[in-house]
Amino acid sequence: MILSDFAGSWTGTNGFRLMPGDPLAEAPATVIVTTAAGGHLTLVAYTWVHPADGPQDGLIVVASAGEGGSLVAVWGDSWHQKPATMSLPGGPAGDATFEFTGDYGGGWGWRIRLDGTDADNLRVGMDNIIPAEYATAEKAAGPYPVMVMDVRRA
Questions:
Q1: 31 CB contacts (<8 Å, ≥6 apart)?
Q2: Strand 142-153 with 8-16, pairing
Q3: Which residues, including other chains, have CB under 8 Å from residue 67's CB and lie 6 or more apart?
Q4: In angstroms, rounded to a whole number, what is the distance separating the alpha carbons of residues 113 and 87?
Q5: Helices vs strands, H then E, count in the chain
Q6: Under a CB-based contact definition with an 8 Å cutoff, are residues 42 and 62 in contact?
Q7: Which of 12, 19, 68, 144 has the fewest CB atoms within 10 Å of its CB?
Q8: pLDDT in tens, 87-122
Q9: CB 125 within 8 A of CB 148
């Protein structure tokens, strides 16, 4: 079961920024991790606060994508990814760390990392991925953090 050791309620902070040069705006955040479907699904429900648009929430559902330990995450968020969900293939990226990456159009991408390497701390990171053809001196090609969530058991 994916992140089953992290089932429960978590509270902490989330840093948000829209553009790579913007500072991270920190605000309260919560995460609730549950398993479902006999342990075949892991649900990561979270809340965060946008600096201008107020309270937001999202859900990441992680499941097996078949053989070889590959996984898939289905993600939706009240501010970033709506009304349709986004499917992001991925899998383990180290001890208790999982990474999922998907394309949302024209080479632009989104990456979600669930990092449970510290039993007392859960980190959820979300990166926007800038395609090389849209890179500038202010916006380098590749990923940059948009959401940096750091929570502890409630």
A1: 9, 10, 11, 12, 44, 45, 46, 122, 124, 149, 151
A2: antiparallel
A3: none
A4: 14
A5: 0, 10
A6: yes
A7: 68
A8: 999 999 888 899 999 999 889 999 999 999 998 999
A9: yes
Kindly report, residue by residue over 45-94, the tens digit of the pLDDT.
999 999 999 999 999 999 998 877 789 999 999 999 988 999 999 999 88
Residue 51 DSSP SS3: coil
Instruction: Map residue 140 onto helix, strand or coil.
Output: coil
pTM for this predicted structure = 0.94
Q: What distance lies between CA 19 and its chain's CA centroid?
A: 17
Q: Token digits for 85?
A: 């969900």
Strand, helix or coil for residue 6: helix
The length of the chain in residues reads 154
CB atoms within 10 A of CB 151: 23
